[in-house]
Amino acid sequence: MLSLVVNMLASALLMGIAEGGVLEHREERIQHGRPLSDKQEQEDYDHDAFLGDEDAEYFETLDPDESQRRLGIICDKIDKDENGLINLEELQKWIQFVQEREVREDTERQWGERNKGQGEHVSWDSFRKDVYGFIEEGGEGGYNFQPMMDRDSRRWQKADSDGDGKLTKLEFQAFLHPEDSGYMRDIMVIETLEDMDVDKDGSLSLDEYIGDMYKGMPGDNEPDWVTQEREMFAMERDKDGDGFMSFEEVQQWIIPDDFDHSLAEAKHLIVKADANGDSFLSKEEVLDQYDMFVGSSATQFGEVLSRHDEF
């Protein structure tokens, strides 16, 4: 995973590209647990949700027959009752397993990079020097990283549940993946508002809501989905009808109480791959939809298929 700074730089660059008129759909702001993928195209999202999003370069080297063989082994792993069919619950649990493993492994990897022999904790001072030390050395290169550091500092303080200025591994995981920690949800809403609230009035107007998703050139006809989002804003997002989304309304949007990504993705995969309409997936049906599950070498997935020790 990219470092926090590199992630932020990438986001800044993407926003710069979007200013030039490139469509930028941000429905992935919606959270319920860790997002299964940051991909916007549905097929790319399916790949990441089913397999995990790392080691794409290695997967590209796999022979198609070998990758299909591994996909068959994954099907056997998902089929817990060993009846030859994958049901909705089994598929959802698999997607949750992939999601949770990625969070755990990312935390372990970054903990190893940041802990540096500090024992059971990582201090903010150590983290700040490690990630942002170049600022003090005058190495910002014309870009102001201070707001990023301030934002991380605020998130760090929120993750620091006992207020000792240091994070345990569990607190560090909450810092890295706030979507998985209930006590971090306010921070997610605050950060979303900061990203989208252009006039800094503490709420989101319709223009700010649409502007975060779509950057069109003057005179362009809006895509149908943008029109639908405008209607969604009026009918669902702005619950009190005052023309703005408040903190509470933004929270309900990005962290809905009644939405589960893993369940929604499992239902989607079954609908797409269930050729005989029995609401189950056989191994043959999964392999017949190989491209949907694992087939595009142009996307970053394949973390599961590339694990030597599991095959």
Notes on the structure:
The structure is a single chain. This protein is mainly alpha-helical. 57% of the residues lie in helices and 4% in strands. It contains 15 helices and six strands. The strands form three sheets. The protein has a two-stranded antiparallel ribbon. Strands 2-3 form a two-stranded antiparallel ribbon. The longest helix has 28 residues, at 88-115. The model is unreliable at 1-28, 30-47 and 295-302 (pLDDT under 50).
Shape: globular
- What class, by secondary structure content? mainly alpha
CA(first)-CA(last) distance: 24 Å
By DSSP (H or I, 4+ residues per run), the number of helices equals 15
How much beta, percentage-wise?
A: under 5%
Average pLDDT: 78
The ordered string of helix (H) and strand (E) elements is HHHHEHEHHEHHEHHEHHEHH
Summed up, what is this model?
With 311 residues, the chain is mostly helical. The chain has helices spanning 4-19, 42-51, 56-60, 64-78, 88-115, 124-136, 146-159, 169-176, 185-196, 206-213, 224-237, 247-254, 261-273, 283-288, 290-295, and strands at 85-86, 122-123, 166-167, 204-205, 244-245, 281-282. Helices cover 57% and strands 4% of the residues.
